[in-house]
Amino acid sequence: MSGAITDVPGVSVGHCTLDDGSIQTGVTVVRPNGGNLYRDKVPAAATVINGFGKSIGLVQVEELGVLETPIALTNTFGVGAIAQAQIRATIAENPLIGREWPTVNPLVFECNDGYLNDIQALAVREEHYDAASAAASGTFARGAVGAGRGMSCFDLKGGIGSASRMALAAGTSYTVGALVLANFGRLPMLTIGGVPVGRALAERAALEQRANADIAGALVAKPEQGSIIMLIATDAPLDARQLKRLSMRAAAGLARTGSTYGHGSGDISLAFSTAYTVPHEADFVAVPPCVADARLDPLFHAAADSVEQAIIDALFQATTVTGRDGHRRLSLADAAPDLTQILAQPTR
């Protein structure tokens, strides 16, 4: 196992990264499988933990419990362009859409990368979705790439993170994987493995009276105003109602890292299963026997663990980025070169 969402068989991830001066943004695409998702939909469900967000497609997912496009991640002002790209791509694959067949439900999630990226430039375009989709594979970069290029996390550099766990449920071993777009939190909140790492960094900065705007800004008592998108994939046979329950466990993993889902935070999770598909044209749908509700706890634990580890992965994988108007976000490695010693200290 690679420790990523792509450990779930069939799942692939691709990025298109825009790194050009004040333009620090991009697109990330997650494909549940390599097939025609409109013709053979994937069971899914979402949970809105805090709804300060501008995603598109959640209403139909809530109603019908399926995905019919890949999942796209980008910045807030890129949602419209990426949704249009998804529509065009799906029509090209299924020419009857909007005529003999119903329209398609694009699914785009967003976070605001405006601190590092000139979001007003509307730099994300349709071709960037196409490039990210074409690049989708079982191995992919994490950190300051794709949609994560301009994202901040705990006043440090955030972005794309991923992790996976194995879970034994009802006597069968299943894989649960998570991918996050991490763009939330204030530095003093950051907790890694139960250790208040962010508080230690903030206290050190205050003690040293560091004239470093990258860290000093984190010492100002500002509310949490970021967002996070958490995607959970599994090969366990679950129906949409059970996937809704699984998606809710993302909140447990998020909370372990120190988040309190602040007023201005858009915290959304989505879970899907690759165990079966739902055909577009059918009179009856054959669903395999699903894991009994009373046997779901190992999957719940795996989902929470994977989301927590994916957030930490985003911080560890990210590199320092300078963007709009000279704004800079330090990577965790650059902000805390002695992180190993901090983690070894007794929890305060």
TrEMBL record:
CDD domains named among the record's database cross-references: DmpA (cd02253)
Record family assignment: Belongs to the peptidase S58 family.
PANTHER family: BLR5678 PROTEIN, D-AMINOPEPTIDASE
Protein name (database record): P1 family peptidase
Cross-referenced Gene3D superfamilies: L-amino peptidase D-ALA esterase/amidase
One MF annotation (Gene Ontology) recorded for this entry: aminopeptidase activity
InterPro entries on file: ArgJ-like_dom_sf (IPR016117), Peptidase_S58_DmpA (IPR005321)
Any one Pfam family match given in the protein's UniProt record, by short name: Peptidase_S58
